[in-house]
Automatic annotation (TrEMBL):
GO molecular function, a single term: DNA binding
Transmembrane regions listed in the UniProt entry: none
SUPFAM superfamilies, sorted: lambda repressor-like DNA-binding domains
One Pfam family per UniProt: HTH_31
Entry-linked SMART domains: HTH_XRE
Coiled-coil segments on the chain, per record: none
Protein name: Transcriptional regulator with XRE-family HTH domain
Native organism: Chelatococcus composti
Domain HTH cro/C1-type: 8-66
Length: 126
């Protein structure tokens, strides 16, 4: 399941909406919506993402969060290391080979390292 799929499924559950009801309202098949939730389809298209946001009648922060989760939800991602160091290429390939064997705590630790690196690049908050 992708982060986007997990959130959409939770929103359906919170509102008591079935997969079939939502799929009909969006004009997609239940099978497609299920595959999207489970990460068997790529990210939703921009028009579909907007339709989902409208369907759930969410605004501002929650809509931004759904968009962010959609961006993070490509189930098959590619890391382009062209022009980076050999070590960067090695790390990217190791991560691709090892991620299926990491537990949630280990994945969380990697995520925390990436968050810390982003904060360092962004500099101090004003």
């Amino acid at each position: 399941m992708t982060p986007f799929g997990e959130r959409v499924r939770a929103m359906r559950a919170e509102r008591g909406v079935t997969l079939k009801q939502m799929a009909e309202a969006l004009g997609v098949s239940s099978a497609y919506l299920s595959a999207l939730e489970h990460g068997k389809r790529g990210r939703p298209s921009w028009p579909l993402l907007q339709a989902i946001i409208q369907y759930f009648n969410v605004i501002w922060d929650e809509a931004d969060e759904l968009q962010r989760l959609a961006e993070l939800s490509a189930p098959r991602c590619v890391i382009d290391t062209t022009g980076l160091s050999p070590r960067a290429t090695a790390v990217a390939n190791r991560l691709a080979g090892e991620i299926a064997h990491l537990n949630e705590e280990e994945i969380g630790a990697i995520d925390a390292v990436l968050d810390a690196a982003r904060r360092r690049r962004s500099g101090p908050a004003a």
